[in-house]
Design goal:
Helix content is about 25%, strand content about 20%. It is an alpha/beta fold. The strands form 3 sheets. A 6-stranded mixed β-sheet has the order 1-2-3-4-5-6, with helices on one face. The protein starts with a helix and ends with a strand.
């Protein structure tokens, strides 16, 4: 039998080898995406879907989708629970609390998770993947709420909150209490855009920079640099799912639903993969310095 010293020596030697090849020594917390998302209706006047669909990815993470009959963007919102804080990314595309009760929905989920008394000891961080209107419209519902911090949406506000010293370079971390998130600046679609890597589940939240749809690129050179930086950051990390903020592609490879669509009966699945991100980076490298629309099976690079 091997001695403890020998075993320790073997592990010490092999862990860097495994890490360099993308293997993780930490078991990721699993979750389920076995869900049929609400996807609008042929006639929204006769649609009985809820304004907000709630799906428990697991007991520590919730995915919400806004009804496309409330707003055609149908954005996804993510809520992550830690031991000391909870954080949500994005607040949806509708300001009205009567049409889109996002604050009440989130508050109910917090109480369900922590208990009524426990909720009073937990800070809710209301954050964003980026500052476009369909991701921050519900912010006003959270202003002035107890135990709630609303993160600003400008690049300087985002950098200050997460502690970036050289925005948009580098990576910062944010600890929810027993749950650490890595924040990677990825401007190009929008100036304050970030990606979020959850070490607990291996989920990457990619906002509007990568999702099954039209990847609108405002600043081509910045976007290319951002995707390259994100790809490099994740090179040695296990990624369980890449979850973006919308679905615009159909189940037919390379075919998207038109802007303004309120009914997507055959929409692409939400999760993409680390390989999809790698492929996006390769396409951007191949296209080069001059913006070009590029249609692929799972996304469309769309310079604006």
């Amino acid at each position: 039998m091997f001695s403890k010293k020998t075993i320790a020596s073997l592990l010490f030697g092999i862990l860097p080898f495994l890490s360099a090849r993308g293997y993780s020594a930490v078991t990721l917390e699993s979750g389920t995406l076995n869900v049929k998302w609400i996807h609008g209706a042929a006639s929204c006047l006769n649609n009985n879907d809820p304004a907000i669909q709630v799906h428990n990815f697991n007991e520590n993470m919730v995915i919400l989708r806004q009804s496309k009959c409330v707003n055609y963007e149908g954005p996804f919102i993510y809520l992550l629970f830690g031991e000391k804080k909870a954080i949500m990314f994005d607040t949806g595309a509708t300001k009205s609390a009567s049409q889109f009760p996002i604050q009440k929905t989130i508050e109910k989920l917090l109480v369900q998770h922590y208990g009524a008394e426990g909720r009073t000891k937990i800070e809710l961080i209301v954050a964003h993947t980026h500052s476009h209107g369909d991701h921050i419209a519900g912010d006003s519902q959270f202003k002035g709420q107890a135990n709630t911090t609303l993160v600003g949406t400008s690049p300087s506000a985002v950098a200050a909150f997460y502690g970036f010293s050289k925005w948009p370079n580098g990576v910062s971390t944010y600890d929810l209490g027993g749950r650490v998130l890595d924040l990677v600046p990825i401007p190009g679609h929008e100036d304050s855009h970030i990606a979020i890597y959850d070490r607990q589940t291996g989920v990457l939240l990619s906002g509007d920079s990568l999702y099954p749809g039209r990847l609108y690129v405002k600043n081509w050179s910045t976007y290319r640099k951002s995707i390259a930086q994100l790809t490099a950051f994740l090179a040695n990390k296990e990624v369980s799912h890449v979850l973006g903020a919308h679905i615009e592609m159909s189940t037919t490879p390379g075919v998207d639903y038109p802007i303004g669509t309120t009914f997507q009966p055959s929409e692409h699945e939400l999760p993409l993969s680390k390989d999809t991100l790698t492929f996006l980076n390769e396409r951007l490298l191949d296209i080069g310095a001059f913006p070009q629309e590029d249609v692929q099976n799972d996304f469309i690079i769309y310079p604006i």
